[in-house]
Amino acid sequence: MDGLPREHADLLALVARHATGEGRIDSSYPGVWFWRADRPVAKRKSQALTLSLVTVVQGRKEASFGEHALTYDPGRYLVLTGETEFDSSVLEASPERPYLSVCVAMPPEVVARTLIALADSDLGPVDEPVPAFVSRLDPSVLGALCRLLAALDEPAERAVLAPLIVEEIVFRLLRSEAAAVLRRAVRRGDETRIQESMAFIRAHATDRLTVEGLARRAAMSPSHFAHRFRAVARVSPMRYVKHVRLHEARTLLLRGARASEVAGQVGYASASHFTRDFKSYFGVPPAEYARRLHAAGDRPVEAQQTA
């Protein structure tokens, strides 16, 4: 094809072999699907449910985000962030030369894991947020797409190689102009993962918890996890752990536990450390707090305040 690398003809042949009917055609691998249109399609509402790479191999399409329109055709790709609504229209298609494209979902956890691996690389800042991005198709991404589609037919290659090739595509896009869109898509999922981390802390407060371990569980780098955690919870991860433990200690005291036993029950290795933290947070040492509770008829100290 004029002006396009030889590999593009290979990709076109692979897509055409799978896209045998109009509309969306799912492949044998979850997260890879095809689109075919035999005639132009008027503008209609569309939605991207997940972060995805859309590569047109024949025909031309337009996606509109408000007043911002993006046109993509062979040799260019579109990256869409998840949960994005837009208007789309097929501009060029015919029965002889149908519109054909391949779509690859990029799991946010794969993007996050790759970002951690690239932590020492200069990926540049995340500029003004955009819901989509169009760019020229890099030969390395084109080659990876060809290998991904070629792996779909053989069960062993599909199971073993396809996930690795998707990771390669994510890696290469993170080292391209599309990096900011991928990073923004992961950031949009940060709040949910931080909330999940907070729930995990509440359920496992007595365990030995570290920022590194919590970040690993959330598929973030420790520094990014700590930054995003503070933005959501308004305190650092370990301070949140401490607050959860201290509130659990107060609950145990309310239930009649002995102050000398509570430290170990809420995850403190040092009783003196627990006493210092408790006094700093509640204003009195745990033993004194328990004594006041008993004197007040098992009501919390705060309940004795008057309006």
From TrEMBL:
<keyword id="KW-0238">DNA-binding</keyword>
<dbReference type="InterPro" id="IPR020449">
    <property type="entry name" value="Tscrpt_reg_AraC-type_HTH"/>
</dbReference>
<dbReference type="GO" id="GO:0043565">
    <property type="term" value="F:sequence-specific DNA binding"/>
</dbReference>
<feature type="domain" description="HTH araC/xylS-type">
    <location>
        <begin position="195"/>
        <end position="292"/>
    </location>
</feature>
<dbReference type="InterPro" id="IPR018060">
    <property type="entry name" value="HTH_AraC"/>
</dbReference>
<dbReference type="InterPro" id="IPR009057">
    <property type="entry name" value="Homeodomain-like_sf"/>
</dbReference>
<dbReference type="InterPro" id="IPR009594">
    <property type="entry name" value="Tscrpt_reg_HTH_AraC_N"/>
</dbReference>
<dbReference type="GO" id="GO:0003700">
    <property type="term" value="F:DNA-binding transcription factor activity"/>
</dbReference>
<keyword id="KW-0804">Transcription</keyword>
<protein>
    <submittedName>
        <fullName>AraC family transcriptional regulator</fullName>
    </submittedName>
</protein>
<dbReference type="Pfam" id="PF12833">
    <property type="entry name" value="HTH_18"/>
</dbReference>
<dbReference type="Pfam" id="PF06719">
    <property type="entry name" value="AraC_N"/>
</dbReference>
<keyword id="KW-0805">Transcription regulation</keyword>
